[in-house]
Write a structure and sequence with these properties.
It is a single chain. This protein has eleven helices and ten strands. It is α+β, with helices and mostly antiparallel strands and 333 residues long. The protein folds into two domains: 9-189, Jelly Rolls; 204-328, Arc Repressor Mutant, subunit A (Orthogonal Bundle), CATH 1.10.10.
């Protein structure tokens, strides 16, 4: 990792091998999203000016290698692709396992202790930042390291930044700067999850049951699956499945199955001309009145009002439990 510190690179890197072509590593273990700084509503994106250095790439280190200490003169993003690393900054030691992204800041005195037992692989790029007038909180409040869950957006953005640096084309600089800015703001705010991935840490039985519910909703079968069918699909007892759902999703499996059908109904209401009665029948509800009661409980408005607001371009806020289902449900096959 060529540094921008007070020592020459060959004195700071013990045994590192620079790799010209960047490639992604395996994903990090799932973990809940940590809190981030509060971005102000008046944040001025055009005032966040980033300049990316040519000092970027992927590096490999043998077991037990170290890097530093150094004093940084600019910012650096470091992504631990493989290895279990310790990063020390200004006298504080941070664990940095595989899947961690670190934000090193100017003036920091830091060093890295690479995995003592295995090869370490990490990506990095240096950049300068001018954001004094953008409205960002003080740098002293910024997070310095995040170990990311599966399905995050930051590592794809990191890969994109490195690729754009490796394959420069005329007119692509705005793409590079936009990707780097989104990476920075997502890192700072803790806003790095994506739809249907990484939202909750789900056990295999809950994941299997949710997939079964989704296939049921897509098949337009009447009614909802019974608890015994969900338990068999998840390969656990009905009681154990209920306990898992309450713990991981916040609602029971039968409630979750109904919410998945309600979520499908919201899409049909906003993006088709199907009559409400037809939507209710297609999703297996007993009758339009039962459907309306369930839909109103989940969304806070009736299907008719939801359709009118959606077609007018208004945003209809989700209830907490429906948001939990949307976040937890795996991507459909």
């Amino acid at each position: 990792m060529p540094p921008t510190g007070s020592r020459r690179p060959q004195k700071q890197i013990q045994g590192a091998t620079k790799i010209e072509h960047y490639g992604p590593g395996p994903g990090a273990p799932k973990s809940p999203a940590p809190a981030g700084i509060q971005l102000p509503p008046h944040l001025l994106l055009e005032k966040i000016r980033i300049r990316i250095s040519a000092t970027a790439g992927l590096a490999l280190y043998p077991p037990g290698a170290t890097f530093g200490p150094r004093t940084l003169r600019d910012f650096e993003f470091v992504w631990i692709v493989d290895g279990n690393v310790e990063w020390e900054a200004d006298g504080v030691t941070y664990p940095a396992p595989q899947g961690t992204i670190i934000l090193c800041r100017p003036g920091m005195r830091d060093m890295f202790r690479w995995d003592p037992d295995h090869q370490t692989r990490h990506a990095y790029f240096h950049f300068s930042l001018d954001a004094e007038d953008a409205g960002l909180p003080p740098q002293s409040e910024w997070p310095v390291a995040r170990t990311l869950p599966e399905g995050d957006i930051l590592r794809p953005l990191f890969r994109h930044v490195i690729w754009l640096l490796d394959e420069p084309r005329p007119g692509w600089e705005p793409l590079l700067l936009s990707a780097a800015r989104q990476l920075l703001l997502g890192f700072l705010a803790g806003a790095y999850l994506t739809r249907g991935e990484g939202g909750l840490e789900l056990s295999p039985p809950v994941t299997q049951a949710l997939k079964f519910m989704q296939h049921w909703a897509d098949s337009a079968r009447s009614g909802a699956p019974v608890l015994g069918e969900l338990a068999r699909a998840a390969n656990v007892s009905a009681g154990h499945l209920c306990r898992l759902f309450k713990k991981e999703v916040g609602v029971g499996p039968m409630h979750a199955a109904r919410l998945i059908r309600i979520d499908r109904a919201a899409t049909l209401l906003s993006r088709t001309n199907l009559r409400i009665k037809a939507i209710a029948g297609q999703l297996g509800f007993e009758n339009p009145f039962h459907f309306t009661r369930c839909f109103s409980a989940a969304w806070g408005v009736s299907p008719r009002v939801y359709r009118r607001q959606a077609q007018a371009g208004e945003v209809v806020p989700m209830t907490r439990v429906l948001r939990a289902i949307r976040t937890a449900a795996p991507q459909r096959d």
